What does this fold into?
Amino acid sequence: MPPALTPDAIRAHSSARWIGTRIECLDTIDSTNSHVRSLGLEGAADGTVVTAEEQTAGRGRLGRSWVSPRGRNLYLSILLRSGLDASLLSQLSLTAGLAACEAVGEWCAATLKWPNDVLIGGRKVVGILAELEARDSDRFVVLGIGVNVNMSRAELPAELADKATSIAIECGREVDRAQVAGRLLTHLERRYDQLHRDGFAEIAAAWNRLSAMVGRQIRVDEPGGIVTGEVLGLAPDGALCLKREDGREHRVIAGDVTVLGGYDRVGSGE
Ligand code: BT5
It folds into this structure.
């Protein structure tokens, strides 16, 4: 087993100033998001970070689960309190995806898939789960990020073999999880501060540059039916803009997206 993550090892690679002022590195936990939610309800500070060596009930979106084997990857959650509004939750997740893509990009060329997956070679390497807690006057977001760092092909469950990858699989060598965590916090703080200072437009432009989707034909399963079209890019408000076959523009706010045409850089998972 590699050395366990420690706050000092993560800080050694981070230049973030307020994200990670408090870092807790746990051994086993059900879900780092659930743990940070409890810390938030107890009054923990903005920017508190929790990592775990393994999760026994790692969560994805919409009730899905996140495969979280011990000692191999990064399972990290951050408490965010400042300037939050429920309508900004999707912008916040997109911003986190961009920052994670930039962090992973320090090791391998990575791309973004809407809403906030990071892919290498069309396979998912990062997943993001942003959860809003709004009880009485207590409002905060728990931003959960799972990065497959050192998981080997043999450690991938069969159902993920074609859909998932890790930095180590793509780089051909194991990498230091603390370094990945430190760089992730650094990029996150920079982009999150930018979001609050300047709004979403610059983030959307950077997202479009790193997205593997612009110009691709996609299918979206929306609550109202199936829509297909060519991706134009992320709108300044976080919606995904499509050009439909009849030439009309369509905005996707929520839904599962599949890239059509056997495109080999973007996976067709959820
Ligand atoms: C996500 O959901 O991608 C959000 C994942 C967030 C995980 C982090 S880890 C730290 C924090 N604590 C938590 O409990 N969660 C967060 P979604 O877009 O719904 O994708 C889930 C789907 O991705 C699953 O249904 C699988 O198909 C696939 N998947 C599961 N585990 C994976 C893994 N380790 N790598 C790549 N794909 C995976």
Q: What stands out?
A: The two ends are 31 Å apart (CA to CA). Residues 31-33, 55, 58-62, 64, 66-67, 75-77, 124, 127-129, 144-146, 148, 160, 163-164, 269-270 surround biotinyl-5-AMP (CB under 6 Å). Confidence is low (pLDDT under 50) at residues 263-270. The chain has two domains: 7-209, 217-259.
